[in-house]
Amino acid sequence: MKKGLGLLAFATVLFLVGCATSYQPLGMTGGFSETRISDDTYQVKFSGNGNTSGDKVWYYWIYRCAELTKSKGYNAFVLISDKAASNSNDKLSGASASLQPATMGSGEEPVFVNAKGGGGYYYIPSYGGRITTYSASAFVRFLKEPIPDSVSYYKAPVILEALKPYIDSEGNTVTKVPSRVDLLKQALVLSKDAMTIGELPNSTAPTTLDDYKSLLPAKQ
Question: Model's pTM, two decimal places?
């Protein structure tokens, strides 16, 4: 009996490992998690397994950021990268919307950085071979309205509406999901002082992908 249960458990694990990560709280195959820093600031993470693409992890992660924002009674948020927060003497109390939204980078740890880089990280499982997995993480700060025009921020309802079909279908929707840059364009409200050179695009001038470099994860 015990042997049979053990084989069943092993088969279940193999089945789960073979599935892509769903949009779910953190579990055996990955998922989202958050750590409360203060009433208006959380660290939000999404971890995928070896069958989950970097794109899917990013969409799930940004959706969770927006979903958490709404669940706490807010409509707007800014992102602060893990690296920027860790380099701050006061962790997050001095952070503001002038810190640019994070981009997905590479390294020994799955973190977000404010620079260019590749996607994903590697680990060696016990049965041998190499599996590429992706994980997204940054600090999310909720903003109360009215929001000063000196602050650039994301509109949570826009992200939720744009990605809901994608989330509901586990990333397999026939409805075309917006590209990362298009999603950011839709959700981003620019400060009055936004600049175009490698920072934030100027809403009064034509924009290109280069204008969004500091807002976009690196290509996977």
Answer: 0.68
